[in-house]
Amino acid sequence: MLLDRIEMMLPFARRQKRQDALLVLNIDRFKTLNDARGHATGDLLLQAVALRIKEVLREGDLLARMGGDEFAILVPELASRSDDAMLRMLHIAEHVHDSLHIPFAVDGETIRLGASMGIALFPQNADDSQIDILRRANTALHQAKTQGGGRTAFFESAMDEAAKQRFQVERELRTAIPNGELRVFLQPQVDAQGNMVAAEALVRWQHPQRGLLAPGVFIPIAEESDLIVDLDDWMLAEVCRLLARDMFAGRQFRIAVNVSPRQFRKAGFAEGVLARLRNSGAEASHLTLEVTEGLMLQDVNSVIATMSGLSNSGIHFSVDDFGTGYSSLAYLKRLPLNELKIDKTFVQDAPSDPDDAALVEGMLSLAKHLHLSVVAEGVETQAQADFLNAHGTVIHQGYLFGKPEPAETILAKLK
Ligand code: C2E
Ligand code: CA
Ligand code: CA
Fold first, then answer.
1. Where would I find the beta strands (DSSP E) of 44-146?
2. Is the dihedral of CA 295, 301, 302, 304 positive or negative?
Protein backbone atom coordinates (compact mmCIF):
# COMPACT_ATOMS: atom_id res chain seq x y z
CA MET A 1 0.00 0.00 0.00
CA LEU A 2 2.85 2.38 0.82
CA LEU A 3 4.48 1.84 -2.56
CA ASP A 4 1.15 2.18 -4.34
CA ARG A 5 0.45 5.41 -2.58
CA ILE A 6 3.86 6.86 -3.53
CA GLU A 7 3.28 5.83 -7.12
CA MET A 8 -0.05 7.63 -7.06
CA MET A 9 1.40 10.78 -5.50
CA LEU A 10 4.32 11.17 -7.90
CA PRO A 11 2.53 12.59 -10.95
CA PHE A 12 0.58 15.08 -8.80
CA ALA A 13 3.70 16.21 -6.98
CA ARG A 14 5.47 16.74 -10.31
CA ARG A 15 2.64 18.68 -11.85
CA GLN A 16 1.98 20.84 -8.78
CA LYS A 17 5.72 21.35 -8.20
CA ARG A 18 5.39 20.37 -4.57
CA GLN A 19 7.53 18.27 -2.30
CA ASP A 20 6.39 15.12 -0.54
CA ALA A 21 8.50 13.05 1.82
CA LEU A 22 9.07 9.48 2.88
CA LEU A 23 10.51 8.91 6.34
CA VAL A 24 11.70 5.47 7.40
CA LEU A 25 12.20 4.77 11.06
CA ASN A 26 14.04 2.02 12.83
CA ILE A 27 13.96 1.46 16.58
CA ASP A 28 17.43 1.49 18.08
CA ARG A 29 18.59 -1.74 19.78
CA PHE A 30 15.21 -3.37 19.32
CA LYS A 31 16.74 -6.76 18.68
CA THR A 32 18.53 -6.74 22.05
CA LEU A 33 15.30 -5.78 23.73
CA ASN A 34 13.34 -8.44 21.91
CA ASP A 35 15.85 -11.10 22.85
CA ALA A 36 16.02 -10.01 26.49
CA ARG A 37 12.29 -9.60 27.20
CA GLY A 38 10.77 -12.07 24.81
CA HIS A 39 8.85 -11.73 21.58
CA ALA A 40 5.47 -11.25 23.22
CA THR A 41 6.70 -8.09 24.95
CA GLY A 42 8.36 -7.06 21.69
CA ASP A 43 5.07 -7.35 19.84
CA LEU A 44 3.21 -5.28 22.43
CA LEU A 45 5.93 -2.68 22.23
CA LEU A 46 5.67 -2.45 18.44
CA GLN A 47 1.94 -1.88 18.73
CA ALA A 48 2.50 0.84 21.30
CA VAL A 49 5.13 2.46 19.09
CA ALA A 50 2.73 2.48 16.16
CA LEU A 51 0.09 4.24 18.24
CA ARG A 52 2.55 6.84 19.50
CA ILE A 53 3.72 7.67 15.99
CA LYS A 54 0.18 7.86 14.74
CA GLU A 55 -0.62 10.53 17.31
CA VAL A 56 2.06 12.79 15.88
CA LEU A 57 0.80 12.56 12.31
CA ARG A 58 -1.75 14.64 10.50
CA GLU A 59 -4.75 13.35 8.69
CA GLY A 60 -3.60 12.34 5.22
CA ASP A 61 -0.18 11.12 6.36
CA LEU A 62 0.31 7.41 5.95
CA LEU A 63 1.98 5.23 8.57
CA ALA A 64 3.17 1.80 7.44
CA ARG A 65 5.00 -1.05 9.07
CA MET A 66 7.76 -2.27 6.78
CA GLY A 67 8.61 -5.35 8.86
CA GLY A 68 10.47 -6.05 12.08
CA ASP A 69 11.00 -2.83 13.95
CA GLU A 70 10.89 -0.66 10.87
CA PHE A 71 8.13 1.85 10.13
CA ALA A 72 7.58 4.31 7.35
CA ILE A 73 5.74 7.62 7.28
CA LEU A 74 4.55 9.12 4.04
CA VAL A 75 3.89 12.85 4.24
CA PRO A 76 2.19 14.46 1.25
CA GLU A 77 2.06 18.12 0.26
CA LEU A 78 4.75 19.41 2.53
CA ALA A 79 5.80 22.58 0.75
CA SER A 80 6.72 23.85 -2.67
CA ARG A 81 10.34 24.52 -1.78
CA SER A 82 12.62 21.74 -0.71
CA ASP A 83 14.23 23.74 2.08
CA ASP A 84 10.81 24.44 3.59
CA ALA A 85 9.97 20.77 3.17
CA MET A 86 13.17 19.77 4.97
CA LEU A 87 12.35 22.01 7.87
CA ARG A 88 8.84 20.61 8.17
CA MET A 89 10.17 17.06 8.09
CA LEU A 90 12.76 17.87 10.73
CA HIS A 91 9.95 19.05 12.98
CA ILE A 92 7.94 15.90 12.36
CA ALA A 93 11.01 13.78 13.07
CA GLU A 94 11.63 15.66 16.30
CA HIS A 95 8.05 15.10 17.37
CA VAL A 96 8.39 11.39 16.73
CA HIS A 97 11.69 11.26 18.63
CA ASP A 98 10.05 13.10 21.55
CA SER A 99 7.01 10.88 21.62
CA LEU A 100 9.14 7.71 21.69
CA HIS A 101 11.26 9.07 24.54
CA ILE A 102 8.27 9.00 26.86
CA PRO A 103 8.66 5.65 28.69
CA PHE A 104 6.45 2.77 27.55
CA ALA A 105 4.68 0.68 30.13
CA VAL A 106 4.53 -2.80 28.67
CA ASP A 107 3.74 -5.94 30.63
CA GLY A 108 4.34 -4.16 33.93
CA GLU A 109 7.76 -2.91 32.82
CA THR A 110 8.95 0.56 31.89
CA ILE A 111 10.85 0.69 28.65
CA ARG A 112 12.50 3.64 26.98
CA LEU A 113 13.08 3.72 23.25
CA GLY A 114 15.11 5.67 20.78
CA ALA A 115 14.87 5.55 17.00
CA SER A 116 16.83 6.45 13.90
CA MET A 117 15.15 8.08 10.92
CA GLY A 118 15.99 8.56 7.29
CA ILE A 119 14.13 11.00 5.08
CA ALA A 120 13.86 11.29 1.31
CA LEU A 121 12.06 14.19 -0.31
CA PHE A 122 10.46 13.60 -3.67
CA PRO A 123 10.07 14.01 -6.55
CA GLN A 124 13.71 14.60 -7.27
CA ASN A 125 14.18 13.45 -10.84
CA ALA A 126 11.68 13.26 -13.67
CA ASP A 127 11.87 9.47 -13.79
CA ASP A 128 11.85 8.65 -10.06
CA SER A 129 10.05 5.43 -9.22
CA GLN A 130 8.61 4.52 -5.83
CA ILE A 131 11.46 2.05 -5.38
CA ASP A 132 14.06 4.82 -5.94
CA ILE A 133 12.42 6.86 -3.25
CA LEU A 134 12.31 4.01 -0.75
CA ARG A 135 15.95 3.25 -1.47
CA ARG A 136 16.96 6.86 -0.83
CA ALA A 137 15.10 6.95 2.47
CA ASN A 138 16.81 3.71 3.50
CA THR A 139 20.21 5.10 2.53
CA ALA A 140 19.53 8.08 4.78
CA LEU A 141 18.36 5.75 7.57
CA HIS A 142 21.57 3.76 7.28
CA GLN A 143 23.52 6.98 7.62
CA ALA A 144 21.52 7.97 10.71
CA LYS A 145 22.22 4.55 12.28
CA THR A 146 25.96 4.73 11.63
CA GLN A 147 26.03 8.10 13.34
CA GLY A 148 25.12 6.28 16.52
CA GLY A 149 21.33 6.09 16.72
CA GLY A 150 18.73 8.55 17.94
CA ARG A 151 19.30 10.68 14.85
CA THR A 152 17.63 11.85 11.68
CA ALA A 153 19.34 12.06 8.30
CA PHE A 154 18.22 13.34 4.93
CA PHE A 155 19.13 11.70 1.69
CA GLU A 156 21.96 13.98 0.64
CA SER A 157 21.08 15.08 -2.84
CA ALA A 158 17.55 15.75 -1.67
CA MET A 159 19.14 19.03 -0.85
CA ASP A 160 18.91 20.50 -4.29
CA GLU A 161 21.22 23.29 -5.33
CA ALA A 162 18.90 26.04 -4.13
CA ALA A 163 18.58 24.50 -0.68
CA LYS A 164 22.34 24.01 -0.41
CA GLN A 165 22.88 27.60 -1.33
CA ARG A 166 20.43 28.79 1.29
CA PHE A 167 22.24 26.86 3.98
CA GLN A 168 25.54 28.26 2.80
CA VAL A 169 24.22 31.83 2.79
CA GLU A 170 22.96 31.38 6.31
CA ARG A 171 26.30 30.05 7.52
CA GLU A 172 28.28 32.82 5.84
CA LEU A 173 25.92 35.57 6.92
CA ARG A 174 26.56 34.67 10.55
CA THR A 175 30.17 35.77 10.17
CA ALA A 176 29.48 38.59 7.71
CA ILE A 177 28.28 40.93 10.44
CA PRO A 178 31.27 40.55 12.78
CA ASN A 179 33.61 40.57 9.74
CA GLY A 180 32.29 43.95 8.64
CA GLU A 181 31.01 42.77 5.26
CA LEU A 182 27.67 44.60 5.39
CA ARG A 183 27.22 48.09 3.87
CA VAL A 184 24.66 50.82 4.36
CA PHE A 185 23.16 52.15 1.13
CA LEU A 186 20.80 55.07 1.06
CA GLN A 187 18.07 55.84 -1.44
CA PRO A 188 16.82 59.44 -1.66
CA GLN A 189 13.20 60.38 -0.99
CA VAL A 190 12.28 63.65 -2.71
CA ASP A 191 9.34 66.04 -2.55
CA ALA A 192 7.35 67.27 -5.57
CA GLN A 193 10.02 69.94 -6.22
CA GLY A 194 12.75 67.32 -6.27
CA ASN A 195 14.36 68.23 -2.93
CA MET A 196 15.77 65.33 -0.95
CA VAL A 197 13.83 65.34 2.31
CA ALA A 198 14.65 61.86 3.60
CA ALA A 199 16.35 58.61 2.65
CA GLU A 200 15.79 54.91 3.20
CA ALA A 201 18.64 52.79 4.49
CA LEU A 202 19.01 49.55 2.56
CA VAL A 203 21.54 46.88 3.39
CA ARG A 204 24.05 45.41 0.95
CA TRP A 205 26.49 42.57 1.53
CA GLN A 206 30.01 42.96 0.19
CA HIS A 207 30.65 39.24 -0.12
CA PRO A 208 34.34 38.32 -0.34
CA GLN A 209 33.77 35.98 -3.31
CA ARG A 210 30.39 36.83 -4.79
CA GLY A 211 30.69 40.62 -4.85
CA LEU A 212 28.01 43.09 -3.81
CA LEU A 213 24.80 41.22 -2.97
CA ALA A 214 21.31 42.74 -2.94
CA PRO A 215 19.16 42.04 0.13
CA GLY A 216 16.78 39.84 -1.85
CA VAL A 217 19.51 37.17 -1.76
CA PHE A 218 19.94 37.08 2.00
CA ILE A 219 17.22 38.98 3.89
CA PRO A 220 14.56 36.26 3.43
CA ILE A 221 17.07 33.71 4.77
CA ALA A 222 18.02 35.96 7.68
CA GLU A 223 14.34 36.42 8.48
CA GLU A 224 13.93 32.72 9.16
CA SER A 225 16.13 32.98 12.22
CA ASP A 226 17.41 35.48 14.75
CA LEU A 227 20.04 36.48 12.22
CA ILE A 228 17.66 39.20 11.09
CA VAL A 229 17.68 40.64 14.59
CA ASP A 230 21.47 41.00 14.52
CA LEU A 231 21.34 42.43 11.02
CA ASP A 232 18.64 44.97 11.78
CA ASP A 233 20.35 45.98 14.97
CA TRP A 234 23.61 46.46 13.11
CA MET A 235 21.81 48.63 10.56
CA LEU A 236 20.16 50.70 13.25
CA ALA A 237 23.48 51.32 14.97
CA GLU A 238 25.11 52.35 11.66
CA VAL A 239 22.28 54.72 10.78
CA CYS A 240 22.38 56.27 14.26
CA ARG A 241 26.10 56.87 13.75
CA LEU A 242 25.38 58.66 10.47
CA LEU A 243 22.59 60.71 12.02
CA ALA A 244 24.86 61.87 14.83
CA ARG A 245 26.96 63.87 12.36
CA ASP A 246 26.98 67.66 12.59
CA MET A 247 25.38 68.03 9.17
CA PHE A 248 22.06 66.85 10.59
CA ALA A 249 21.97 69.21 13.56
CA GLY A 250 19.02 71.55 13.11
CA ARG A 251 18.19 70.06 9.71
CA GLN A 252 14.84 68.46 8.98
CA PHE A 253 15.87 65.17 7.51
CA ARG A 254 15.06 61.59 8.37
CA ILE A 255 16.63 58.27 7.56
CA ALA A 256 14.22 55.33 7.47
CA VAL A 257 15.34 51.93 8.71
CA ASN A 258 13.53 48.67 7.97
CA VAL A 259 12.40 46.75 11.02
CA SER A 260 11.51 43.12 10.53
CA PRO A 261 8.61 41.75 12.60
CA ARG A 262 10.94 39.39 14.42
CA GLN A 263 13.11 42.25 15.60
CA PHE A 264 10.12 44.34 16.58
CA ARG A 265 8.72 41.54 18.71
CA LYS A 266 11.98 40.85 20.53
CA ALA A 267 11.74 41.70 24.20
CA GLY A 268 13.45 44.99 24.88
CA PHE A 269 13.22 46.22 21.30
CA ALA A 270 12.06 49.75 22.19
CA GLU A 271 14.68 50.12 24.91
CA GLY A 272 17.32 48.90 22.45
CA VAL A 273 16.39 51.52 19.87
CA LEU A 274 16.43 54.31 22.45
CA ALA A 275 19.79 53.09 23.75
CA ARG A 276 21.23 53.11 20.21
CA LEU A 277 20.09 56.69 19.79
CA ARG A 278 21.46 57.75 23.16
CA ASN A 279 24.82 56.08 22.71
CA SER A 280 25.34 57.58 19.27
CA GLY A 281 24.14 61.06 20.13
CA ALA A 282 21.64 61.02 17.23
CA GLU A 283 18.24 62.61 17.65
CA ALA A 284 15.05 60.57 17.57
CA SER A 285 13.49 63.23 15.32
CA HIS A 286 15.82 62.10 12.51
CA LEU A 287 14.80 58.46 12.61
CA THR A 288 11.92 56.67 10.90
CA LEU A 289 11.18 53.00 11.44
CA GLU A 290 9.51 51.11 8.61
CA VAL A 291 7.23 48.31 9.70
CA THR A 292 5.02 46.05 7.60
CA GLU A 293 1.31 45.49 7.76
CA GLY A 294 1.84 41.92 8.90
CA LEU A 295 2.99 43.19 12.27
CA MET A 296 -0.57 44.25 13.07
CA LEU A 297 -1.94 40.75 12.68
CA GLN A 298 -0.77 39.52 16.06
CA ASP A 299 -1.13 40.91 19.52
CA VAL A 300 -1.96 44.41 18.38
CA ASN A 301 -2.09 45.82 21.89
CA SER A 302 1.53 45.08 22.61
CA VAL A 303 2.47 46.42 19.15
CA ILE A 304 0.70 49.66 20.02
CA ALA A 305 2.45 49.84 23.38
CA THR A 306 5.90 49.37 21.83
CA MET A 307 5.22 51.84 19.07
CA SER A 308 3.75 54.46 21.37
CA GLY A 309 6.83 54.57 23.57
CA LEU A 310 9.09 55.12 20.58
CA SER A 311 6.68 57.51 18.93
CA ASN A 312 6.57 59.69 22.06
CA SER A 313 10.31 60.07 21.86
CA GLY A 314 10.01 61.57 18.37
CA ILE A 315 10.64 58.55 16.17
CA HIS A 316 8.35 58.27 13.16
CA PHE A 317 6.65 55.09 12.00
CA SER A 318 6.01 54.23 8.39
CA VAL A 319 3.98 51.33 7.00
CA ASP A 320 6.10 49.68 4.32
CA ASP A 321 4.73 48.02 1.17
CA PHE A 322 1.30 49.39 2.01
CA GLY A 323 -1.49 47.64 0.16
CA THR A 324 0.22 44.27 -0.26
CA GLY A 325 -0.52 42.83 3.18
CA TYR A 326 -3.58 42.51 5.33
CA SER A 327 -4.18 46.01 6.62
CA SER A 328 -6.94 46.36 9.03
CA LEU A 329 -8.12 49.92 8.67
CA ALA A 330 -9.32 49.83 12.27
CA TYR A 331 -5.79 49.11 13.45
CA LEU A 332 -4.29 51.75 11.20
CA LYS A 333 -6.31 54.28 13.12
CA ARG A 334 -5.18 52.99 16.49
CA LEU A 335 -1.45 52.89 15.77
CA PRO A 336 0.81 55.91 16.21
CA LEU A 337 1.73 56.05 12.52
CA ASN A 338 3.17 58.96 10.55
CA GLU A 339 3.54 57.62 7.03
CA LEU A 340 2.33 55.12 4.46
CA LYS A 341 4.61 53.79 1.76
CA ILE A 342 2.59 52.81 -1.28
CA ASP A 343 4.04 49.66 -2.72
CA LYS A 344 5.75 49.92 -6.09
CA THR A 345 3.40 47.51 -7.82
CA PHE A 346 0.54 50.03 -7.46
CA VAL A 347 2.71 53.03 -8.25
CA GLN A 348 4.15 51.58 -11.40
CA ASP A 349 0.85 50.61 -13.00
CA ALA A 350 -1.21 53.56 -11.81
CA PRO A 351 -0.83 55.70 -14.97
CA SER A 352 -1.89 52.83 -17.24
CA ASP A 353 -4.19 50.59 -15.19
CA PRO A 354 -7.47 52.11 -13.97
CA ASP A 355 -7.71 49.63 -11.10
CA ASP A 356 -4.30 50.56 -9.74
CA ALA A 357 -5.08 54.22 -10.33
CA ALA A 358 -8.23 53.89 -8.21
CA LEU A 359 -6.30 52.05 -5.49
CA VAL A 360 -3.60 54.71 -5.34
CA GLU A 361 -6.21 57.46 -5.18
CA GLY A 362 -7.95 55.56 -2.40
CA MET A 363 -4.73 55.18 -0.43
CA LEU A 364 -3.97 58.86 -0.84
CA SER A 365 -7.35 59.91 0.49
CA LEU A 366 -7.13 57.40 3.32
CA ALA A 367 -3.73 58.82 4.27
CA LYS A 368 -5.11 62.33 4.15
CA HIS A 369 -7.97 61.44 6.48
CA LEU A 370 -5.61 59.78 8.92
CA HIS A 371 -3.14 62.69 8.68
CA LEU A 372 -0.38 60.47 7.37
CA SER A 373 2.25 61.51 4.89
CA VAL A 374 2.79 59.31 1.85
CA VAL A 375 5.90 57.94 0.22
CA ALA A 376 5.46 56.35 -3.19
CA GLU A 377 7.94 53.56 -3.85
CA GLY A 378 9.41 52.54 -7.18
CA VAL A 379 8.78 55.74 -9.13
CA GLU A 380 10.62 55.07 -12.37
CA THR A 381 8.97 57.30 -14.97
CA GLN A 382 7.88 60.91 -15.23
CA ALA A 383 4.36 59.68 -15.99
CA GLN A 384 4.23 57.92 -12.62
CA ALA A 385 5.55 60.99 -10.79
CA ASP A 386 3.06 63.24 -12.60
CA PHE A 387 0.16 60.94 -11.76
CA LEU A 388 1.08 61.01 -8.07
CA ASN A 389 1.59 64.76 -7.93
CA ALA A 390 -1.75 65.30 -9.61
CA HIS A 391 -3.53 63.32 -6.91
CA GLY A 392 -1.93 64.48 -3.69
CA THR A 393 1.14 65.49 -1.75
CA VAL A 394 3.53 62.65 -2.23
CA ILE A 395 7.19 62.00 -1.44
CA HIS A 396 8.84 60.04 -4.23
CA GLN A 397 11.32 57.22 -3.86
CA GLY A 398 12.46 55.55 -7.04
CA TYR A 399 15.02 55.16 -9.76
CA LEU A 400 13.70 58.31 -11.48
CA PHE A 401 15.16 60.34 -8.61
CA GLY A 402 17.97 58.12 -7.45
CA LYS A 403 18.98 54.52 -6.91
CA PRO A 404 20.28 53.28 -3.59
CA GLU A 405 23.96 54.23 -3.35
CA PRO A 406 26.63 53.99 -0.63
CA ALA A 407 25.68 56.16 2.33
CA GLU A 408 28.68 58.45 1.90
CA THR A 409 27.75 59.18 -1.74
CA ILE A 410 24.21 60.21 -0.82
CA LEU A 411 25.28 62.24 2.21
CA ALA A 412 27.83 64.11 0.08
CA LYS A 413 25.00 65.05 -2.31
CA LEU A 414 22.81 66.13 0.57
CA LYS A 415 25.57 68.38 1.92
P1 C2E B 1 11.80 47.66 0.54
O2 C2E B 1 11.87 48.09 1.96
O3 C2E B 1 10.45 47.69 -0.11
O4 C2E B 1 12.84 48.60 -0.22
C5 C2E B 1 12.62 49.16 -1.46
C6 C2E B 1 13.25 48.31 -2.53
O7 C2E B 1 12.81 48.79 -3.80
C8 C2E B 1 14.78 48.41 -2.56
O9 C2E B 1 15.28 47.16 -2.99
C10 C2E B 1 15.01 49.45 -3.66
O11 C2E B 1 16.27 49.34 -4.25
C12 C2E B 1 13.90 49.08 -4.62
N13 C2E B 1 13.57 50.21 -5.47
C14 C2E B 1 13.66 51.53 -5.16
N15 C2E B 1 13.28 52.28 -6.19
C16 C2E B 1 12.95 51.44 -7.18
C17 C2E B 1 12.46 51.64 -8.52
O18 C2E B 1 12.26 52.76 -9.01
N19 C2E B 1 12.20 50.53 -9.25
C20 C2E B 1 12.38 49.29 -8.74
N21 C2E B 1 12.11 48.25 -9.53
N22 C2E B 1 12.84 49.05 -7.50
C23 C2E B 1 13.11 50.14 -6.73
P24 C2E B 1 16.46 46.49 -2.22
O25 C2E B 1 17.46 47.49 -1.77
O26 C2E B 1 16.90 45.36 -3.08
O27 C2E B 1 15.77 45.92 -0.91
C28 C2E B 1 14.85 44.87 -1.01
C29 C2E B 1 14.17 44.63 0.32
O30 C2E B 1 15.08 44.12 1.28
C31 C2E B 1 13.61 45.89 0.96
O32 C2E B 1 12.40 46.20 0.35
C33 C2E B 1 13.49 45.47 2.39
O34 C2E B 1 12.28 44.74 2.58
C35 C2E B 1 14.64 44.52 2.56
N36 C2E B 1 15.72 45.18 3.28
C37 C2E B 1 16.72 45.96 2.78
N38 C2E B 1 17.53 46.39 3.77
C39 C2E B 1 17.04 45.89 4.94
C40 C2E B 1 17.43 45.96 6.33
O41 C2E B 1 18.40 46.62 6.72
N42 C2E B 1 16.65 45.27 7.22
C43 C2E B 1 15.55 44.56 6.83
N44 C2E B 1 14.84 43.94 7.76
N45 C2E B 1 15.17 44.47 5.55
C46 C2E B 1 15.89 45.12 4.61
CA1 CA C 1 11.41 49.59 3.29
CA1 CA D 1 8.79 48.81 0.49
1. 62-67, 70-79, 104-106, 109-111, 115-122
2. positive
Ligand 1 binding pocket includes 189 (Cβ within 6 Å)? no
- Assigned superfamily of 181-414: EAL domain (3.20.20.450)
Cα separation of 403 and 400, whole Å?
A: 8
Contact 85, 124 (CB under 8 A): no
Residues 119-175: pLDDT tens digits? 999 988 888 899 999 999 998 898 888 877 888 988 876 445 556 677 788 889 999
The CA distance from 189 to 194, in Å, is 9
**Can you give the residue ranges of every domain in the chain?**
2-165, 181-414
CB of 232 closer than 6 angstroms to any ligand 1 atom: yes
CATH class of 2-165: alpha beta
Which of 190, 295, 377 gets mutated to test ligand 1 (max ligand atoms within 8 A of its CB)? Answer: 377
Per residue in 366-392, pLDDT tens? Answer: 999 999 999 999 999 999 999 999 999
378 C-beta closer than 6 A to ligand 1: yes
CA distances from 234 to 152, 240, 263, 269, 386 (A): 35, 10, 12, 13, 37
